[in-house]
Amino acid sequence: MSAHQNQLAFRLDSLPDERRVACVVLPELASELARWATTKPTERAKARPLGVVLMDGVERHMTLAELNRAVEPNFRLSAVDAFARRLGITAGQTIVEARCLHAGLEVIALPRSKIAETLGKIAESLLDRASIVAIEAPDTIWLEIGPVMRALGGEAAVANEIIERVRCLGHAVRLAVATGPRLAQLFARWAALGAKAGLLVPQARSLAVASTLPLTALPLSRNQLGWLGQLGLVSLGDLLQLPEGELVDRLGRDAGRFIALARGEDNEPLFPLQPERILREGLEWEEPVEGLERLRFVLRRLTTNLESRLAARGEAAERLGVTLHHDNAIARHRGTPNVTQLQFELARPLWYAEDLERIIVTRCERTELLAPIIALELKVIAPTPKVPKQLELGRLVAGYGSSAPAEEGLPMLLAELDVDIGSERIGLLRLGDSHRPESKSLFSPCRPKESPTRPQPRKTKPRQTQSAMAMPPSDYPTQAPANSNAQKSPPCPQTIEGITRLLERPIVIEPPIRVGATIFLDHQAYVIERLRFEERLAGIEWWGKEPICRDYWRVFLQGPSAGLEGLIYVEPNGGRCFLQALVD
Amino acid sequence: MFAELLAWSNFSFLRGASHPEEMVERAHKLGLLALGICEREGIYGSVRAWVRAKELDQRLLVGAELSLDLAEPNAPGLTPAEARRRSLTEQQPAPTLALYPEHLTGYRDLCRAITLAHAEHDKGQAGYRLYRDGLPTSGLLIIVPADSLLALDAIDASSVAASTSGLRGESHRERVLDYLANVAAEQTYLAIFRHFDGLDAARLAAVELAHLHYGFPVIATARPRFHDISRRRLADVIACIRRGDRLDSAGTHLHKNAEALLLSETQIRERFADHPDWVDGTEAIVERCRFDLGQINYRFPCTLLPGETADEKLDHLVWQGAARRYSNGVSPSVKAQLEHELAVIRQMGMASYFLSTWEVVEMARARRILCQGRGSAANSAVCYVLGITAVDPSRSRMLFERFMSPERQEPPDIDVDFEHERREEVISDIYRAYGRERAAMVSEVIRYRSRSALREVAKVFGLSPEQIERLTSTVSGWAPVDHAVLGLKEVGLDADDERLQQILELAKELQGFPRHLSIHVGGFVLSAEPLEQVAPIEPARMPGRTVIPFDKDDIDALGFFKVDVLGLGMLTAIRKALELLHRDGRHGDPRVAFDPLEALAAIPAEDPAVYRSICRADTVGVFQIESRAQMAMLPRLRPRRFYDLVIEVAIVRPGPIHGGMVHPYLRRRNGEEPVSYAHPSLEQILVRTLGVPLFQEQVMQIAITGAGYSGGEADQLRRDMAAWKKNGRLLRHRERLLAGFARNGIDLKFGEALFAQIKGFGEYGFPESHAASFALLVYASAWQKVHHPAHFAAALLNAQPMGFYSPHSIIRDAQAHGVEVHDIDVSFSTWDHTLEGPTTARKLRLGFRLIANLSKRMVEYLVTERTKHRFSDLEDFRLRVCPARDELEILAAAGALESLEPGRRNALWAARQPERGTLFARPTRIPTQTAARVALPAVSRGAHLRFDYDTKGLCLTDHPMLHLRAWLKTRRVVTANALPRCQRGERIAVAGLVLCRQQPMTASGILFVTLEDETGVINLIVREEVQARYGLMLRQASLLCARGRLERTDPGNLPDSVPVIHLLAEEFERLDRSNGKLRSFSRDFH
Question: Which residues in chain A have Cβ-Cβ distances shorter than 8 Å to B913?
Fold first, then answer.
């Protein structure tokens, strides 16, 4: 029987009272997001392999460019695109390792939260196709389609619709429908048909299909897989040939669940996704763009996403906010605000992407862009019901409006400070292990604790062995440095002492730097009273950046009203001098 | 004038980034008054620096910089855990003192101080316990480096140190400086340096304060870590290697700049323009330190009776030994030779050296350990009668001057081989006899080779272990790192990557750097006085061993004597085979206790069957003549008597091959060319080698007889031969030889040809004496193989690792000789391979030692339990032996449980069965799972083969090529046994498992590969251009298919003749990729 015939047969075999769970697996999600983050996909860049580093603890105000600057060579790749995979580059390798395989590897950093956020948004766009929608980072969306599929034209129609919608959002997708979420996930990931059309597996065929999956589909340890291989077992079906009790004795308690899966049994519940009330869509990129033409591409993507989500929620936009984030440096230089905000009070609720795009573009055409744009955010501030629909069960089950529990103390203080001086100015200082003064002190803005606006999925106990149904071996390792030595030993004591204020940018000082010479700072004249040589930094950079060569001097200055102590460095080659720090 | 006094070389192990010779050369170029090499914790690189300084006439001071262990006198030393912690958290330099000897007494004090610093610490964690041991200050100058003062302050600030030292109130800095002021005020100096690293001011303040309080003079130094600025990056890399860190995370542990450089006087004066007196101060130290390594007064020990001299004792032993060796009376020629040798020994004062070596050999003989001297010592009749060597000088033309001569005042070199498994017993006896204070082993400098350099640098640059493996696979052995570039693409690495380029560049610089000191394989230095008076002694990492920090080159340079106690696997194998034969009553009387010395002597001489077998090149496992080249030579040389074996051993060597001596000899031997001599006076010398000089002694004798050289001069000629490529001194002999020959009427053409041959010897030629020593073992092992193949194979396997072939090849060869081989089984096998069945038809039972990752202890326990009563089933075995689960699974996979649980998969299933015990009770017996209850897939032939190769490296019933044979047939691949039917020049394809890769230096870059298929072995010759095309495949593949032209040499219609067949390979195909990863069993020699 051909694969196609198989698929048809499965469709016919589905029974009315079966639990039907569709699993959408997005195998390329991280690299897709990373590609979209590069706004200049030149032909050359397209031809380069791509690796993605997912960063934990990323601050709200951190731009993508800042995030990428924080990437270090020993960070591990969380995901790679198909091109990179063909070159042997895999998730889990460090950037150093990966670049040894292809020097031209492009690495993009994204906040890890972006993955869950995107999954959530995609899931939201599928809300009207299921009674329960759930997600699991890094790549899975589940939809409980059993209760709704009859009304929506049957299982195959729903599956096709889901695939179509996700593809329209620009994602590669694999889909399978089975009697339980883990089974569906296994089928979507490992069964051949899941790759193209969806694979619909009724209860009666679960055993047959599951039996053909390889043992590597299960989260077994290397040792366990090796042992099973020695026994001549290859597929899940082979496991069923062995007495369950004795197998559990040899493989541990999880073997029971594996065997159940091999039998096609899966009763795991789904924990519903609760969408946020306010819909946000945003995109940021590294290189600032000017001109509306490039922005329209971005806008189209965002409005398409909004349309999809609104449609799934059965809502429309009544009030819309658009925020254009400017390049900070240029905005500061031009003396303009960092953001331009536009508000749209719509005469009637809209939900189609073209409508939304048209009104935004119309306004933007009349708006002067004060500085190049590095991010665009759309916000549906007041979603309003479009047409009441019968199939709102999923959303009702998920529930709205669960408020965050009141928290006191530091968060409150931080919140007040946030309002008062801006969150970018609140944070922690940590010591950097570097010879360069500017890298010795690192500022990390405070990250507000994620607000639990929706019930969190039940947390399983963190165990070293397989956690409860933690099926996939994670494709998204953390970006922790490969070498933990840096954590083992604290950095050396600072050799240049007493720096209490590092200037944001070193100030150029006119030479000569000698006792008695006069220098001007902020239009004030200072006389160098004393000089003391501190240290020489030479050739400390190994890669990429320009080699540093600096002689540091401590200067004691006498001004018209008071004295000043500072740190000056002189570049031996060019002879340029800079004031880098002041000692208060 | 300025002298640099605090220089480190790379012998400060991962601290300095220049070779000692480079430091000396640079100092000489900069015109420094003197250079003080002051290695950390020892004087490791000093001898090299001293040798180079002598050549350049550069003044060199030898000193050591010792870390201070500031524990209280009665406090225990650092525990290993503390030491480890200290080394891990070492961020600031430990406090140190640099010590320089003023004279010989000072040097002895220095040696003692270094010995003490190492005595109670783990390897690499030396520390001098100043408060307990004090400092021997009589002849030592002490330099306190400025960073040491800061380090003392840092310790004071550290709570850990306070708790360990128990110090209260007084700081370590005060206490150390007070101590120095009290006991060595006149000898203590403070050293200041400016590295522009932000700590200059602190160092200056500390030094000025100490100077003010204690009045110690201050000297300036550059404290150099490298001789040239170009080494700065390497210095960063080695700092990371030392810390186990990566460049990306090393942060402030990297150098801030390149100022730790050897400076000229002008540069240092510029740096210390404010204190020129500090620069001048170095001169005073140079004035005071008059010690030179050449002043060390070393004497060899010997045990004498009161009133007896070493010469008298040697005389006595020699004549006593002569009477024993020659029971029919000592011939006049031997007597004359002995008298001559004794006179030379007496003249050179070497009697004690011979006596000590004799004592060592006697120690072995007392334990009935097989041993025999090798090398040039076999030229000595004295060595023969003392029992040190086994070659009778009356049966050969030995040249004593090859061994020692009065012209050169150097100690002779006596190397003695012992059974490798029992060498430890001899070493223990030596320590017992001479005591640890008078005996120590020589060190061996382990250097970074291309692969290790690449590995370490790549690790520092952050490559993954898997990538490092790939990177290092691009080079082999001593090949330069540059070769890696060619293979990068092949192993899937991108040569455009900036990091990779830097890795290659830095690994190239690192190659040849010393990595650590190891123990020499057998070199012992024995001393009449306590050794610490001539060299520091350190405990080695191996328990119970002590070493001196000099390697064999250093020992030679210093004129020390060493005795080489070498291990030879073949002696072990021969002894084991003889023991098995004795037990079976096949060789000697089994009722009499086994004596290996007697059993060896009882092997019948000149057995024609042995020579017939050797002529057929049936020599797998036979000592020395088992290599590809030797096996190819045997059918052509066709040895028929013992002396032919001596020639066989010597002729397949770089010397005769490059000297063009092989073919003339073979032609003359086969009657294709008449035997002729250039001059009648040379006939006596060359008669046994048919007029062709093959041995070093012959060249020396020709020089003596034909060109009027003295014995000593002839030996100098030999030495210049050996080193002519290095120093070219050989060329100075050309004119003299030719003129001498002309004077004596020897043909000029012969002279030129001889000189060409001498140059060939420069590569590597054998002394006849050495070849003769080895030929004895060749014969003994060949005799065992011919007459007792099962015993020989068992013994050879039990002596592994040794020799040229893997167990896999040895077992297949034994099977080919009709030996029945039984697989490993827990019911029958022991750790060693054993013999079963009737003594007249023994069968070989494989032992557990063949299985990887199995503990010997468990096997011994298994055998003990089995001896009590046999195992009834697998559960019984498990309950009684209690093997670890991993071990049980390995046994199951290896098929060793077949007698208890048939079927490997059933055994594997049963092996993982959990025990049904309780917390306090032993596991109870439960029924073994049987195949009937658990339906496991049957083991296919392929899986069976895989199980066997993965666990044992061989399969008795199958061969990987059998599985590919059907497919190979479609590609017209020829089997090994079909090769004799192929024609010369025919283009054919062969395939097989790679047994061996060999690239001898004589082969002009040619690689020899040996393949094995199910029918036999196939020899491939791979030329350089083919290697370039298939480099990585040739290095890594375990299954290969080769196409090329057949080359064969037919020996004619002689009896016992076999053709010599090779395939001149032109194309290769890798077969192991499509058949899963097969473990490589190849033994590679490059």
Answer: 246, 249-250
